Amino acid sequence: MNVIKTAMAVRLLGTTYHRLFGSVRYGKIPAPSKDSSGDYLWRPRDLADAGVKLCMHQLRKGFGCRAAKILGKSGAAMLHELMRHSSMQVTMDFYANVDDALQDAIVRLT
Predict the structure, then answer these.
(1) Could you report the per-residue pLDDT of 38-72, keeping only the tens digit for each?
(2) 3-class DSSP state for residue 7?
(3) Which of 43, 51, 62, 109 gives 20 to 30 Å between its CA and that of 13?
(4) Whole-model pTM above 0.85?
(5) pLDDT tens digits for 20-45?
(6) Are residues 45 and 10 in the same domain?
C-alpha cells in the first residue's frame, strides 16, 4: 500500500499539523495508521478526499528524494539508474542538495 508520512501530507495540503489532525477529529478524513517509528501514514486516497491533488511527477520526485537520503552521495550511480535520467548531471542537479540538507541538519543538531 502506498502511504505518505505526516510531514509530506502537511506540505501537500498546505496546512498545519493541528488542522490536519483536526480534519481527522471532525471526520473529514479517516484516521491514519502508524509505522514502526511512530510516524503517521496517510493513504493518498484519503488525502485526495481532503483536497490534495497528487500527480505522477510529485510521486516520482518524492521517491527520488527518499532514495537519495537513503543512498547518500555514494549511491548517485544507483539513483541515476533508478530514476532513469538522461545523464548523471540531471540526477546530481535534482538530488545532490538532499544529502547536503540532511548533513546541515545533523550538524545543527550536534
Answers:
(1) 778 877 777 777 776 667 777 788 788 878 878 87
(2) helix
(3) 109
(4) no
(5) 777 777 777 777 888 777 778 877 77
(6) yes
| 64 and 42 both lie in a single domain | no
Terminal-to-terminal C-alpha distance of the chain:
35
Residue 18 grid cell: 493541528
If asked whether residues 40 and 75 sit together in one domain, one would say no
**For the CA atoms of the chain, what is the radius of gyration?**
16
Q: How far apart are CA 102 and CA 89, in angstroms?
A: 20
Last residue of a domain, one of 13, 32, 49: 49
| Beta carbons within 8 Å of 22's beta carbon, 6+ residues apart | none
Cell of 19: 488542522
| Domain enclosing residue 85, as ranges | 56-109
CA distance 46 to 29: 6
Integer Cα distance of 6 and 11 in angstroms: 9
Same domain as 71, residue 42: no
